Structure formats: C-alpha cells, structure tokens
Amino acid sequence: MVYDIKYNQGGYVMKIAIPVEEKSSSTKICISFGRTPYFLVFDDAKKEYNFLENTAAESRGGAGVKAAQFIVDNKVDVLLTPRCGENAAEIFNTAKVKLYKTINDSVEDNLKAFSEGKLELLQEVHPGFHHGN
Amino acid sequence: MATKKIKIAVLSGKGGTGKTFLSVNLASVTQNSVYIDCDVEEPNGHLFFKPQNLQTENVTVKVPFVDPARCTGCRKCVEFCKFNALAYIQGKWMLFDEICHSCGGCVLFCPEKALTEKNRIIGSVQKGVSEDITVMSGILKIGESSGIPIINKLLHMAQDMDENIFIDCPPGSACIVMESIKDADYCLLVAEPTLFGMHNLKLVYELISLFKKPHGVVLNKCIEAVNPSEEFCKAKKIRILAKIPFDKKLGELNSNALIVSRENMEYAQLFSALWQKIAEEVHNEAAFDSKR
Amino acid sequence: MKQLLILSGKGGTGKTTIASALIKLAKAKMYADCDVDAPNLHLLMNKNTNPLCSEYYGMPKAVIDSGLCLRCDVCRQNCRFEAISLKENYLVDTYSCEGCGVCEALCPVSAISLKLNVAGELMLYKDESIFSTACLKMGSGNSGKLVSEVKKQLLLNKVDTDIVIVDGSPGIGCPVIASLSGANMVLIVAEPSLSGINDMERIIKTAKQFDSKVAVCINKYDTNIANSNKIEAFCEDSSIPFLGKIPFDNKAVIAINHNLSVVDVDCAAGRAIKSLFEKALEILP
Q1: For chain A, which chains pass the contact test of at least 3 CB pairs under 8 Å?
Q2: How far apart are CA C229 and CA C218, in angstroms?
Q3: How many domains does chain A fold into?
Q4: Which of B150, B233, C213, C266 has its CA 20 to 30 A from that of C207?
Q5: Which range marks the domain in which residue A103 is found?
C-alpha cells in the first residue's frame, strides 16, 4: 500500500493519518475520530506506514481534543476521516492540519483517491459529545 | 396546624410522568408559594405559568485564561486536566470551555502562574410571578455539560423565602437530581400505572431512600386495570397519596399548557386535598422525629 | 446493514413502546437500548437467557486514606464541588466528586488517590438476536460515554442482518448525540403538546447535523388533535416524511403491563404502528 502523493493543494505532504479499527493492513476506517482505537499513519517521505494507539479512546470526555493534540504532536499534515468534532477541528485549524472527507471505509481506496487529488475537504464538523462524568 | 413552610421535591424516574403537572398545580393551589423548575435542560413549567415581571440573571462558572507572556508551553496544565479541556498547539494555549469542569486545578499548578480565572456564562435563571406564585426557572445553554451550578443558584435564591416551595426536578436519578432534592423536606414520587412506570419508580425510590427523605407516591394517568406501580408501593409499604385517573380532557388542557387547577373546580379540589395530605405527612414526620 | 434510531426529545412519549413494536415487526436481529438512565426495552424483550454483564467505569473518584490523613483541611478548602467533608474522618462524597484530581495533587502526604469507580453496568444478550443495553448507576454524571459503549458493544457483536434498531436516549443533550452516531435514519416520536413540539423541533435540528434521514410520527395523537395537526403541517412545510399517527389505546397499556409489545395484541395502536413500519421501510435509505 504505497502511493505517490503528488504535490497537493498547498505543500508537499509528509504524513497522512487515518482513524482505523484494527492494527492490520486490512483494517476498516473508524467512523469516530476522537474514540478510534488506532491511527494508521502513512509517511510519504519514507513510503511506509505504521499504527499508533489512540490514548484518547478511553477518555471520559474531551476525546476529540486529546486525539487532535496527539495527531498534531505526531507531526501529521493531513487527516483523512469520515467526520470530525468541532473541538478537534478547531485544533486542526490552528495547527494547519488539513482534513479530508473519506469516501468509504477502505484505507486503500481513500489513500489512492487522496493521491489522485480526488478527496474533498471536510466541511462540516459536528457538535461535541461532551461525555464528562 | 404549624405554619412552618416546607420544601417539596417532585420527581419521577422518567420524563413525561407528570412531575411538572403535579408541581405546577400543587404550587397553584397553595397561596403565595414558590415554584422552582430544576429541569434545566428542558424547563417547561414557565409555559404553564406564563410569569410576568421577569428578572433574568446569568449563571456563570469559572474558566481559566492565559497570560501568553508568562506561558512557556510546558504543558503541565494540559497534562493535569482530567477532562481534556486544554490543548497546546504550536505555541498557542487553547481552552475548550464547554468541557471545562471549573475545578481550578490548572490555575493552581501552573509553575509560571500564567493562568487566572474569568467567568463564563453557562445559562440563566429567571424569576417572575403568576398570580400569587413566585415562578423560578433555570435554563442550561445547549451544549453545556452540567446544570448543577444553575440548580445551586436557584436553591440559593429560594433559601430566604419563607413560603412553601415546590421543586420540579429533572427526570432520572443522575447527580443533577440528587442536587435538586438535597434541601427538600419531602419527596413526592410520581409514577405511571405501567410496567415501565413501576420500573422507573423503583429507580427513583432507591435514590430518595439513600437520602432518607420522607416520601409518598402519586399514581398518575391511572386506568381501569391492574396497576404495577400500585403493587410495588403496597409491597414496599410506600404511602400512596393520590391516584389521578387518566382523563382525556385533562390531557388536552395540559398539552395546551393550561393549569388545570385554575381551569377546573374538581382538579382544584383534588390538588388542595393532596397538598393537605402532604403537609400533614411532613408535620407528622417532624413530630415523630422530635420525639426520638 | 441500516441503523434506525428512535428519538423523542422529552421522555414519556412512547419511544420504547414503539421501538419494541418495530423490533418485533422487523424481526430485528440486532437492537439496543440507549436510554441508560432508565432502560425499559428489556422489560418487553422477554429474554430467557442471562446477559453477559460487564462493569462500566466512569470518572475515577477521589478516596482518602484516613490512616495517612493529617487533617490539614487543604483538600476540603480547594474542592470546588464541595465533595469533601469532615465527619469522623475526612470523607469524599462519591456523588459530588468529579474526579478532577486537585485534592490528590495538593495532599502533602499523598493520602488521596483517584480510584476506579463503577458508574454503571453493560449487558449483552446473545441468543437468536443481539441485544445491547446498560444501566447507569444512580447519582452518576453525564451518560454520553455509556451510550457510546452500548452502541460499540452492539456493533462488536454484529451479525449478518439488514436492519438494526436503536431505542435512543431521551432529551436533547450529549447522550442523544452519542445515540445519533452511525444512524442512517431517525424516527422522531412526537407528542402533541406544546413542550412536545418544542422538543421535536430541537431534535430535528440536532439530527440534521449528522447526515441522518429524519422522519416523524405522533403518538397518542388524539390527546390533542389541534396540536397533532400542527405537527403534520410542520412536517409538510419542512419536507420531513410523516409516517403516521398512533391513537391513545388502553389495550396498548394493558399489553405492556403483561410484558407484551403492542403488536402482539390486536389493538388500534398496534395497527397504526404496523402501517408506520411499512412506510418506514419504504423510505429507509
């Protein structure tokens, strides 16, 4: 699963993250960003990918914030996701991490689509889940 | 008959059983009483009273804010916050105030003393009058996580009122309900005559037992059939104070936000009688307690 | 697999009554009860098997070791939630404690620690169908995360089936948002009262933010025909599919009290729900 990410809308992309269900190459994309169990991170410079465990998944509240901080700390440039909460989106906006909306739950399909410039920017963000206590 | 005023909390395990119906009407038949709507997520008592001379006050909580000159980006605050309300993104300190629980921890532990607190509005309380009744409601802004500060404000406002107070509680048995009943002298549990009603009555009965509050039950929307909630009360020896039959006419008045005890003589009498019973129960409890 | 979510705004509109009927009519193999504050669906599902239970942990709560405690009072003075009091010993009230960790960090002798706190219980019935439900312990805080766990548990145990039915959380807050996650269609059960209409409008707004198709039905419509008509007109004006109106029916109440769903007996409410179900299938995306 290696793609040639062409020069894409504002800069040479180094790292792409995708929320995924499992730590395997056949994994599906997870519908939730903040509580996804893992992130698949594709490093375009090294042309390799690895999995990061999402420590925010078990949070009682503010999972989106914690997960977004984690993504930014890992120097990710682009996030491919089905949706994103408003708090995480604010963090990504500040960090200039670009969000693209996935077309289905296949990692391969989405990386391929992204490399061909076919994915659209994620426009709508949803209100927080605010789990609290 | 003692003239000591009492605080009555009206609660049920679930929404739609008749908490508001009961508390609004009990307040209406009791002179000069106070009605407090603690269902701050979905208040609707005011729809019935349509109170006048409204005074509104904001309810605030404390949230941190940063002095960027002092902040070194050490992220101690981000790591401390158990609610993940803080982030530090590329030199910018960020607060997500709807998640903040106002614990004050980040401010206390910032090594550079870069954080101080300011007030943030989470909702409001409103006070008005409807005939001789003082009507107080709280409303939580959509998206806010806890209505407890609003309930505290409402109860605080009522503290010095020397009148009978009827507290319309939020549904369920979560901590927000506990907050609403903590000052109550008596808890009135409302239950429907269905399997669901009984199940929910059980939940809320457990809660008031924990607080050892004197209590009684009103069975609402009763029909001609075996009543599981009634069976439960008999089994637990819980006093049933009234059984209000299901009445289409009543339902219609209610769904048009009319106060039935102001519209209908029969219901005015029913609620007066119920109020008398409750007042008696409370004073009997007090007498019993003083003899111990 | 399509997910149908049933919501109502305020409680007591008949959400669970309708959800249980739809589950029976659809012969659904996967369903869940997201009303974790007061779950009722299991009362009508008549499961003979025992569920698999697991504990749900909420925020960890502070616990004071009185053996180590110096009684310096620093914890109590700094607790913003008035959760610490002095009786015989310094004690934390688990219900008021929000797990912020300030007392733990301030205690000069580390006598306070945040400990795992059971805030509820998850239950999974796994026989000829998968039924996920949970119950929040009394006095617990916001139930949003537990609702997410109920949905997660359901999907982790998925079977091959066309339709999943979820009895949603009442209200309009976070638990409702958690219920909405993954729903293809939302059926709103509206009550023909002023507060019911108010809630219906708020829920529609919320559901629309989640890319879910929205449809409305009215329960106990004959308790206020004028308001019922208002709701129908509103749906027409807003191009929201109106799936039907169900009359108040004593026979339905009696059925429920005998642990039967309203479509298990012959009654007006049952017939109305059957027709509603047919219409729902037609528009399910």
Answers
A1: B, C
A2: 10
A3: 1
A4: B150
A5: 15-121
Nearest to A133 among C142, C178, C182 (CB): C142
What's the mean pLDDT in B54-82?
Answer: 97
Four-CA torsion B94, B100, B102, B106, nearest 10 degrees: -40
Structure tokens at C215: 């449809």
Measure the CA dihedral B247/B251/B253/B257, to 10°. Answer: 150
Residue A106 belongs to some domain of the structure: yes
| Residue C230 Cα to chain centre, angstroms | 27
B82-115 pLDDT tens trace: 999 999 999 999 999 988 999 999 999 999 999 9
Task: Work out whether strand C242-246 and strand C84-86 pair parallel, antiparallel, or are unpaired.
Answer: unpaired
* Partners of B123 in the β-ladder: B59, B140
Quick one: B85 and B21 in the same domain?
no
Using DSSP, how many helices (H) and how many strands (E) does chain C show? 10, 13
**A22 located within any domain:** yes
Q: Which helix or strand (DSSP H or E) is residue C120 part of?
A: strand C118-126
Q: Which residues of B touch C102 (CB under 8 A)?
A: 103-105, 108
Query: What is the number of CB-based contacts under 8 A between chain A and chain C?
Result: 49
Task: Enumerate long-range contacts of A7-11, CB under 8 Å, 24 or more apart.
Answer: A8/A114, A8/A117, A9/A98, A9/A117, A10/A98, A11/A77
| Contact with chain B for residue A133, Cβ under 8 A | yes
DSSP letter for each residue of A84-114: -BHHHHHHHHHHT-EEEE-SSSBHHHHHHHH
Which C residues in the span 2-61 are in contact with B, Cβ-Cβ below 8 Å?
9-13, 16, 37-38, 40, 43-44, 59
- Residue C222 burial (C-beta neighbours within 10 Å; 0-12, 13-18, 19+): middle
Number of domains chain B contains: 2
Both B168 and B269 in a single domain?
Answer: yes
Over the stretch A3-51, which tens digit does the pLDDT of each residue have?
A: 555 545 445 678 999 999 888 878 889 888 988 889 999 998 888 899 9
Tokens representing B37 are 């709507």
> Has residue B283 been placed in a domain?
yes
CATH of the domain at A95: 3.30.420.130
**DSSP result, B260-275:** HHHH-HHHHHHHHHHH
For residue C143, what is the nearest residue in chain A, using CA coordinates?
A: A131
C-alpha C89/C-alpha C102 separation (Å) is 19
**Same-domain status, B183 and B254:** yes
Q: How far apart are CA A78 and CA A7, in angstroms?
A: 13
Task: For residue B69, give the CATH number of its domain.
Answer: 3.30.70.20
Torsion of CA C104, C105, C109, C110, to 10 degrees: 50
If one compares A125 and A8, the residue with the highest pLDDT of the two is: A125
Among B121, B136, B154, residue at a domain's last position: B121
Cβ contact B116:B96 at 8 Å: no
CB-facing half-sphere around the CA of C227: CA atoms within 13 A: 25
- Two tokens, residue A36: 């996804």
Are B112 and B183 in the same domain?
A: no
Residue numbers of the domain that contains B86: 61-121
Which residues of chain B are within 8 Å of residue A61 when distances are taken between CB atoms? 83-84, 99, 145
* ipTM entry: 0.87
Q: Is pLDDT at C252 greater than 80 in this prediction?
A: yes
Cβ contact C103:C78 at 8 Å: yes
Distance CA C19, CA C196 (A): 18
Residues B170 and B284 in one domain: yes
Specify the DSSP class assigned to residue C131: E
Burial readout B106-133 (b: 16 or more C-beta within 10 A, e: otherwise): bbebbeeebbeeeebebbbbbbbebeeb
